[in-house]
TrEMBL record:
It holds the Pfam family Abhydrolase_6. It comes from Mucilaginibacter pankratovii. Residues 21-258 form the AB hydrolase-1 domain. Belongs to the AB hydrolase superfamily. This is Alpha/beta hydrolase. The keyword Hydrolase applies. The keyword Plastid does not apply.
Length: 263
């Protein structure tokens, strides 16, 4: 049986004792944290990993039965915590990893001290009385494009998700990350992500949390951040002066400052 540390390409480093576990978003891997990680290394133990199908994970361990829902990814987070015997973890999750981390903390809260959600969304689809940001027909069109031409989809979507059109190198960074992800797994992960509905799970969280919300974000609009704050016990919200869905890449200094202020 393959080890969890190899399966998820787990990396551990840093000079402190307080553990910070960073979980990347869809289409990314642990390299997405490289713009902020050095700020925490001197005073924390840093744990990075790749979800199965991303980065240098063991893709042979991927099964649709497990990863066809976010709970499968949440179990991987818990597996990493167990394998390293972690306690009182500060979990930092970007995008879909916010809900993955929340599910993990609801299931086994004893592992976690605080959760930091960057651009979270409990539901991406609009619903009656709820603005998630997407209509189902829009998502279906995106998935048709994704299925027919994954590289083309990546080249079109990554810059839009990143925002900051005046800095095209940021969009290129995300495009390259998308293109390095296994297309078949990425397509399934995208559907799992965008059709998930975790609104009912928010009230179950017993661990303190922070929502870091960008002022302009096409994936998680301000209304979603407000919904997180209003429906998650013990949640605080900070709106960053940042555009796009990846402030840890586009505005690392502001992201670092907000995280440090919270922890």
């Amino acid at each position: 049986m393959i080890s969890v540390l190899k399966r998820n390409n787990v990396q551990v480093f840093g000079d402190g004792t307080q553990v910070m576990l960073f979980a990347h978003g869809f289409g990314c891997d642990q390299q997405s944290w490289k713009f902020i990680i050095d700020a925490f290394t001197p005073d924390h133990k840093i744990v990075l990993f790749d979800y199965v199908g991303s980065g240098k994970s063991d893709i042979s361990q991927y099964t649709s039965a497990k990863y066809g829902k976010l709970d499968g990814y949440a179990q991987d987070v818990l597996d990493v915590c167990a394998a390293l015997d972690l306690k009182e973890v500060i979990f930092v999750g970007h995008s879909v990893s916010a809900m993955i981390g929340l599910l993990a903390a609801v299931k086994q809260p004893e592992y976690f001290k605080k959760l930091i959600f960057i651009g979270p969304s409990p539901r991406y689809l609009n619903d009656e009385g709820y603005k998630g940001g997407f209509e189902r027909a829009d998502l279906e069109s995106l998935f048709e494009f994704m299925d027919s031409n994954y590289l083309g989809w990546s080249s079109a979507m990554a810059p839009a998700i990143m925002g900051n059109v005046d800095r095209p190198e940021l969009g290129e960074f995300l495009t390259n990350s998308f293109c390095a992800t296994d297309p078949a797994i990425a397509r399934e992960f995208a559907r799992v992500t965008f059709f998930s509905d975790n609104r009912a799970d928010l009230s179950k969280l017993t661990v303190q949390s922070l929502t870091l919300q960008c002022a302009e974000d096409i994936i998680a609009p301000l209304e979603v951040g407000a919904y997180m704050r209003n429906n998650t016990p013990g949640n605080e919200m900070v709106v960053l002066k940042a555009t796009g869905h990846c402030p840890h890449i586009s505005e690392p200094a502001a992201t670092i400052e907000a995280i440090k202020a919270y922890i």
